[in-house]
Amino acid sequence: MVSRCAILCEVLLAILLPPLGVCLRRGCCTVEFLICLVLTILGYVPGIIYALYIILFAETEPPSDRYDTLA
């Protein structure tokens, strides 16, 4: 689990430079980073909104399958 301090730093970076915040959360060669980069180039505010969505609401790990251990 990510600490609150790390999330706060990522949110601050996402407000200043939206692609950098997404890069720290997901990686620099991902689809999310490229979408955020294009949105930031087209308009600064859509890039911020998308970066905050990725950092705060999108899951970073797929949910684990707890019942698969019996098989």
UniProtKB/TrEMBL annotation:
Where is it predominantly found? Answer: membrane
User: Which segment of the chain is annotated as a signal peptide?
Assistant: 1-23
List membrane-spanning regions.
35-58
Q: Report the locations given in the UniProt record.
A: Membrane
What keyword terms does UniProt attach to this protein?
Membrane, Signal, Transmembrane, Transmembrane helix
Q: Which PROSITE patterns match?
A: UPF0057 (PS01309)
Report whether Transmembrane shows up as a keyword of the record.
yes
Report if keyword Transmembrane helix is assigned. Answer: yes
Q: Which family is it part of?
A: Belongs to the UPF0057 (PMP3) family.
**Species the sequence originates in:** Nicotiana tabacum (Common tobacco)
* Name the record gives this protein: UPF0057 membrane protein At4g30660-like
Q: Which Pfam families match?
A: Pmp3
Any one of the GO CC terms: membrane
Query: So which domain of life are we looking at?
Result: Eukaryota
